[in-house]
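step 3/5: co-fold with manganese (II) ion
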Amino acid sequence: MIDNKFPGKDITSEDLKTKFPLCAKKNSNHKSIVNVGGVRIGDKKNVIIFAGPNMVESYSLMSSVAKKMLKNKLIFLRGGAFKPLTFPYRSKKYCETREEGLEFLKYVRKKYNCKVISEIMESKFLNKVDESIDIIQIGARNMQNYPFLVDVAKTKKPIMLKRHYGASLRDLLGAAEYILHAGNKKLILCERGITAPHTHSSTSRYLLDLTAVVALKELTHLPIISDPSHACFNSKWVHDLSLASLAAGSDGIMLEIHPDPKNAKVDNLQTINYRQFDKLIKELKKIAKVMKKNVI
Ligand code: PEP
Ligand code: MN
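step 4/5: write tokens
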């Protein structure tokens, strides 16, 4: 059936009824809100900021970031104790903190009364997340690991599903449908950049697909977060791409921040420092005010 194609180009209105009935919007006002301990993600009045280092390197790093967040009246920390690094050869510098990292998150969460989003990559660690993580992140590389998606869904915890950089919206919504079908409705989507044509390879690692943000808002009721840090791989561009994400209607923005990006263990090129973070949050708040939204 070649009717009425949506901007993703690969989803028909018939598909929405038969393949993505749980993801699809039922009417133009249909919008899901994922309530994470009182924080309403997807509420059109809110813009949620997830910020933190790429990797949960140490307790002191997470504690420093938590303080920085609280000063900006923000509460959602990010950081991976488990990292899908592109190569298996890891010098000491790149070593994941794994279960110990979850412990760091647990203490920071308790001490600063903040919330945490963090990636889990294997089902065997899902029973360890209750005290340390508020939202389980499923990374780009696991987006189509269907048995894992179902296992994560069964935890009943809120989930953020990142779009793989080579995935169409059809692929993404198919993966999202697995999670909803497994009975977990606390689902958030994340656009983190797609593989760019070679014309872009010298200027960015991926292309932040803001068209997808707009299209997903039309196709589905699920909240959608934008991750400019992973898309552009360039700390100097994160500011403007964050403002663009807000303007495009993202329900939130995920940012990589670190007190000393040059010495961040992973992804230091895309990571912004505290000064850049303060400036960005100040500007996001100004624009959000005009849009009658609160930055949380
Ligand atoms: C991350 O958020 O740290 C991450 C690894 O992202 P992605 O899965 O999008 O590469
Ligand atoms: Mn990263």
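step 5/5: annotate
Residues 274-290 form the longest helix (17 residues).
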